[in-house]
Amino acid sequence: MAKIKHNNFLDTVNEVFTDAKKQGVLHLYAEGDSFTGRKIRVKQKDLFHFGTTGYLGLEQDKRLKEAAMDAIYKYGTQFPLSKSYISNPLYRKLEEKVTQLYNAPVIITKNSTLGHLGVIPSVVNDGDAIILDHQVHWSVQSASNVLKTRSVPIEMIRHSHLGMLEDKIKKLSSKYKKIWYMADGVYSMYGDVAPINELMQLCNKYPQLHLYLDDVHGMSWAGRNGTGYVLSKLDELPDNVLLFGTLSKTFGASGAVAVCTDKKRYHKIKTFGGPLTFSAQLEPASVAAAIASVDIHLSPEIYMLQNELLERITLFNTLLANTDLPLVEQNNSPVFYIGTGMPITGYNFVNRLMKEGFFVNLGIFPAVPVKNTGVRITISRHNQAEEIKSLVDAMVYHYPKALEETYTTPDKVRIAFKLPILNEVPKKQIVEEFCIGYENTIQHIDKDEWNNLMGKQGAFDWDGLLFLENVFTKNERDENNWDFHYIIIKDEMNTPILATFFTYALWKEDMLAPISVSIKLEKIRKNDPYYLTSKVLGMGSPFTEGEHLYLDKSHPHWKLAMKQMLDKIEDLEQQCNSNWLVLRDFEHDDELSQLFHQQGFIKTVMPDSCQILDLYWKTMDEYPESLSTRSRKHFKKDIKPYEDHFKVVYNDGPNRKQIDQFYELYNNVNKHNLALNMFPLPKKLFTMMSQHPNWEFLTLYLKEAFNEGNSHVPVGVMFCYKNMGETYTPAFIGMNYNYTDEHQIYRQLLYQTIKRATKLGFKKIDFGMTASFEKKKVGATIIPKAAYIQAKDNFSIELMGVMENN
């Protein structure tokens, strides 16, 4: 299998966050000598605070502050000893009161992240299985991943998709003792809630089903005695439900709480909960503040506080209902999400609101899909009616201006969030003088113009694309039928600024995933061939490789031309109903990278491109001198001695039998090459290659001395495209793996390709992607490439993350 480097997820997140930081909406510092909760000072300006998770405002309650200060004077700033040995004197009181609050056994943890890391490995046994909601909090997913080392299977379902959940339960029920479904009670971005009643019905139907519910965002503002949203639906906690609450956020103190009614399970967690045993215990001030907060929760006062918050939430909901602002989820939680679609629109909108005097949070990838960026607004008891009304007025005024300045529209945002559209009047072009040419066949584009812009590389000159259009149409299998879309943007002088083409085709979503993921998926696809496949609107095509975008960056309006192109493909995406949009084969370019991020794309690493950029030697005798000293040794040892093993045939008109042989060799390689996992190409392609003047088959036959009786059977083949006398393109390869090591077939194919291109007088060779180490040894320049992707949701990305090494 070819070895390629795969994208580091954290690198992607780093780029997204770095861009948001540059835009002034992330990694900010609060200022000032005091803090009341109603306002927050940022960049020397006091802003009304609509970003807190302290929904009831208890973190500013005088009783909690006095309790914390008293504990510090009595017990110090911390109690530096593991809780497994001895707890600070206030712990017993806190545990007793929280137990009274929930009417169930509890375990106090330092925070919810450490709590999940301690509890999940303790309660999930080796004979159990886990199903994650794909929007469950990162801390739950991270703790679950620890169990991969114990071979506990981890599955994932689309957010709150109960049909998919039941299918997973049926699949797992015959193999595993318990099936744990892990979800949030209230989700932190959109403020939507778990379908608790329906989940309990599934528990009744499937006794193996257990629920692990993280309700930290439902705490205090909902439920009897503020025990949270989940218990507001359940009343009592059953043995098959493990609940996580928080002592921070709305509770006003610090720490978290696991609630478990199963006595054996409780004892196991309490006795040894991994990091719960070894991590530091809560500071005395935090424990004392939590005790003061529990007292409020156990009193009738909590219902007064809940009602005061509900009045503010109701007011905000009522005001928003009288606007066209795209509220993604309407309910009675204190979390609201106004969609902006593209990150650049979100940056603009947040900065406008901050200048107007309001602090809000931006929801960005990976918490939400990149194109589902939006403004996350939280309502608390600190907020007064007048500033809530003023915030809505400010949003109504600034939202359309943010859209206009970032060249988007309300309906485009609504489509991204699957909200009802307003049927607005189509907007004008970004630059009136632009001429935006669009065609769905290369035959409608001037041949000379296309070749001047795009024609000197790969297999996508005018003739190459006409060939591909003819191949990938009217085929039996869906993956072999592609739609082609061509875009050329010119200025008022009819000078091209941009040219590109896209194909709409079925892809395997793991095309660039790690091999370990593709191996698992291919096992599933034996029974379900189209599992985790999607329609993709992708730059270039699954067949071609190279610079699929011509862009004149010296033109003063090149960025606007790019935006116009993105608008056009967004329209095409809606027409096609594609699940993914992919811009690919880009070299390092900070300006383009930032532009794509701001327009809702995330960057992912592609396999390196391998090219011999200049076939300057006149004869093959001179070729070794072009190599490095190390590569010359490799050539003399592993390539040149084997040349005499082969008869080399340049076949541009093979018969049917030979095509069958070539196709078998190609399939051998395709099945092995899971590092770039693609659908196999149709046999029709190879038949049509044999009839096309620009294609030839560079074929290796072992001589009789090395393959007695089978010297007429090919053992290796390069499928090569001859591009306008400029570029020789070995697009695909086929090999018989029974002979590869003994006769160095792959290396010989690379060398014979160079030899053929030199003889024909080509200027360069596009060796394509993968196997860059081998191609570098024969003189190829290795060029790192990246793609920018936009998905309708993060489910597939996160699912493949769960599958890796599972």
TrEMBL record:
Keyword Transferase among UniProt keywords: yes
**Gene Ontology molecular-function annotations:** transaminase activity
Write down the superkingdom of origin.
Bacteria
**Domain BioF2-like acetyltransferase, first and last residues per copy:** 631-773
Which terms are listed as keywords in the entry? Answer: Aminotransferase, Transferase
**Residue intervals of the Aminotransferase class I/classII large domain:** 47-393
Which Pfam families does the entry link to?
A: Acetyltransf_6, Aminotran_1_2
Q: What does this protein need as cofactor?
A: pyridoxal 5'-phosphate
Recorded hits in SUPFAM superfamilies, A to Z, give:
Acyl-CoA N-acyltransferases (Nat) (SSF55729), PLP-dependent transferases (SSF53383)
Q: What is the designated name of this protein? A: Bifunctional aminotransferase class I/II-fold pyridoxal phosphate-dependent enzyme/GNAT family N-acetyltransferase
Naturally occurring in which organism (per UniProt): Flavivirga spongiicola
Q: What is the lineage of its organism?
A: Bacteria, Pseudomonadati, Bacteroidota, Flavobacteriia, Flavobacteriales
